[in-house]
Design a protein that fits this description.
globular, Aspartate Aminotransferase, domain 2, Aspartate Aminotransferase, domain 1, alpha/beta, binds pyridoxal-5'-phosphate
Length: 462
């Protein structure tokens, strides 16, 4: 690939845009240096929002617009990877939080009036969560769900997809690192139903849980395309037969339907985890499941699992979540937002076809990932296939194009289009149709301006 003309063109464009970025953002650069000097390890508290040469520092925001330290106002297509689904400081959340704050937001450490209201609304929407418990983050929710399965089954192993991400310390296979919780993990590739079912059967005696997102999983591309029904049904049956918990991590995918991606496919897990946007921007997480799996969280249960967490039901997050469920995320609002995402994805794909560009928009509903290749990455959700492998090109330029697109959108069009690592559009609800039109015209401009580079890449990938 050393002699790839496409890669040379992509490298040169990347360098040019990065130089422009450095020149345009001196205050963000200075703020990153200050963060490093302050003692924050590596200058960042969250690896996923760090990128070289330095990340943008945000100083103000409203609705779907964020302002950088250097005064650029960007239309936000990222929505903090889903935690910012309702844009910045949505009014109902502000009101609820102001009210909770005024009433003593720590409330002396006892129960508060919001938590049962939030629980009732969530268990109604997610029938798989007969019983529920709150946490502060999605990572904690997944940790609790896995640990519950280990305790209830008395078994020692869990199954994960290779490359899966279930939070700061729960990764699968190639993605796992030294900070991962030392679970005894078995790893399977996404999509190979025969191998997965065989692994579950062969390990039935030891296997406590299979934790997965009910969507495509891949270490670096986050396609978030809902997995085929037949495939998930086979996994459901295998887990039931083995007596291990099927855990759906819906921290992100729950946004795809009022009852989560599980209702899109009609497959019910034993336990479900959620998080991110339900707190309207405040910390939030929850895990739940059928009584059979969750009953031991009752402190009066003879075999109670002593589960706690100082801020699990903190009044601010609970008040915010109630406002979210009542005012910002009704089933109708959820369906309408995802329909808008579907329409935008289709418009992006139409535009890519018109330009003959090596680009496709993948995902489901309001989750869109741009993949810089023409060849199809995944089949259709209604396919009867049970294996559903990903076909992402290994051409290095395909992995570098997100940075070029991100810089270009930022510098020329004032859009925050994912990150330099991944053009991942997790659309906030506050984006207007006008914002979508402006984005499509910016994309068209990008495809025109970089036509030669993209043509070279398309030819080399054929
Ligand atoms: C699928 C999935 N699970 C779990 C998490 C962890 O959530 P949190 O960052 O709130 O701990 C994330 C966060 O990105 C996620 O995408």
């Amino acid at each position: 690939m050393k002699d790839s003309l496409a890669l040379r063109a992509v490298d040169a464009t990347h360098r040019e845009l990065e130089a422009e970025y450095i020149a345009a953002n001196p205050k963000s650069a200075a703020s990153f240096v200050a963060a490093k000097d302050s003692g924050i390890a590596g200058g960042t508290n969250r690896a996923s929002v760090f990128y070289p040469p330095f990340p943008l520092t945000f100083v103000d925001a409203e609705a779907a617009t964020v302002e950088t330290a250097d005064g650029q106002r960007l239309t936000d297509l990222l929505g903090n990877f889903t935690a910012g689904l309702f844009g910045f400081s949505p009014e109902p959340v502000q009101e609820a939080v102001r009210d909770a704050m005024a009433r003593g937001h720590a409330l002396g450490g006892g129960p508060n009036l919001h938590e049962a209201e939030v629980a009732r609304r969530l268990t109604e929407r997610f029938p798989s969560m007969e019983l529920i418990r709150f946490t502060m983050t999605g990572t904690e929710a997944n940790t609790y769900a896995i640990n519950t399965a280990l305790a209830v089954t008395g078994r020692g192993k869990i199954l994960v997809y290779d490359g899966a991400y279930h939070g700061a310390w729960i990764h699968g296979g190639v993605a796992a690192g030294p900070l991962d919780t030392p679970y005894a993990k078995l790893t399977v590739p996404y999509g190979d139903a025969d191998l997965i079912v065989r692994t579950i059967e062969e390990n039935a005696e030891d296997l406590a849980a299979f934790i997965l997102e009910p969507v495509m999983v891949n270490p670096t591309t986050y396609l978030k395309r809902v997995a085929p029904v037949a495939y998930l049904q086979r996994i459901r049956e295998a887990c039931s037969a083995a007596g291990c918990a099927l855990i759906f991590d819906e921290v992100m995918t729950s946004r795809l339907s009022p009852g989560g991606a599980q209702t899109l496919v009609g497959v019910t897990p034993d336990m479900t985890t959620i998080g991110k946007y339900f707190g309207g921007g405040l910390p939030f997480g929850a895990f739940g499941g059928s009584r059979a799996w969750m009953a031991r969280h009752d402190p009066l249960h003879p075999q109670t699992i002593n589960s706690g967490g100082t801020f699990n039901q903190n009044a601010l997050s609970m008040a915010a979540a109630k406002a979210v469920l009542d005012e910002l995320w009704s089933p109708a609002q959820c369906a309408a937002h995802n329909a808008r995402g579907d329409a935008l994805r289709e418009s992006i794909n139409q535009l890519a076809r018109q330009h003959g560009a090596p680009l496709q928009a993948c995902g489901t509903g309001s989750l869109i990932t741009l993949i810089w290749q023409r060849e199809a990455v995944v089949g259709d959700i209604n396919d009867e296939t049970e294996t559903h492998l990903l076909a992402i090109s290994t051409h290095p330029a395909v992995r570098q194009l997100p940075a070029i697109f991100w810089f270009d959108m930022l510098l020329r069009h004032n859009f925050l289009a994912g990150s330099p690592r991944l053009n991942y559009l997790t659309l906030p609800t506050q984006l207007t149709d006008d914002d979508f039109q402006r984005f499509l015209s910016a994309l068209s401009d990008f495809l025109t301006r970089h036509r030669d580079m993209l043509k070279l890449l398309a030819e080399e990938m054929e």
